[in-house]
Amino acid sequence: MFRASVFDRLSQSNARLIACRDLGEGFGLARWSNLRDRVRYENSQCHVLSLYTENGTASRRADRPASGAGFPGALTLMPQGAHSDWQIEGEFAFLHLYIPDAALRAFAAEALEINPDRVALPEVTYAADAGLQARLAGLAGQNDPQSARIGLQDLLHHLLTGPGWNGLKAGVPHQGGLPPATLRRLRKAVMTAPDAPHRLSDLAALAGLSEFHFHRAFRRATGLTPQVWVERLRISRAEALILAGQPLAQVALDCGFAHQSHLTRAFRKARGMTPAAWRAACA
Question: What is the pTM of this model?
Fold first, then answer.
């Protein structure tokens, strides 16, 4: 289950949780409503993207009166580490997307091939962005887990590179990280033979580095350890085999997991549900 200090704080307030979904890898999505409340956030565990879906004109930041009032469709981004104080005088409904920092940095490295140290989400209160609004609302309404994952990745791409958001700092060097071409070569090796051991020594040799330097450079380049990264690729390969109808015990062996229970634990952590539930949801 995802962890979010903002989620915990809302659970202790007057807010009512309407629905909640674990999107895997620490991502979570919740639909809330609230009426006449004062909520103070110490946002210590993840980034939070908020969308007002109904009303919101009676919601204000008490710590930043100049921000004005909310409105239907208003977007707010609360980066990890931000503090805020909210005064709510009328009823409204909203969505929260909980974004773990490590997973966001890993996405930047894997999907955008950029230094994860460049990720620096801005604090934004009451912005209008029809594209991001549609992406978040679409994600909330998507029941198919494959489509939801694609939608989440599209949303993260917009959040990092879209006009008005641009959560990437310019001019940050790699500082010893692996070149994108090396990461592509490593990815190809793992996806071609996901059942192989892919030990640290194997990956380091493929990159032409000592194990010590490879581990440090890999973490710098992706925000992940090599072991976590390999497991994520194995899960991606497992998805295709699960959809093809292959028995889960065989999927586990073909993707480098010790047994079916090992696959189930890893898959639930990565996708927020068991392989069997994921296959049924994609049917």
Answer: 0.93
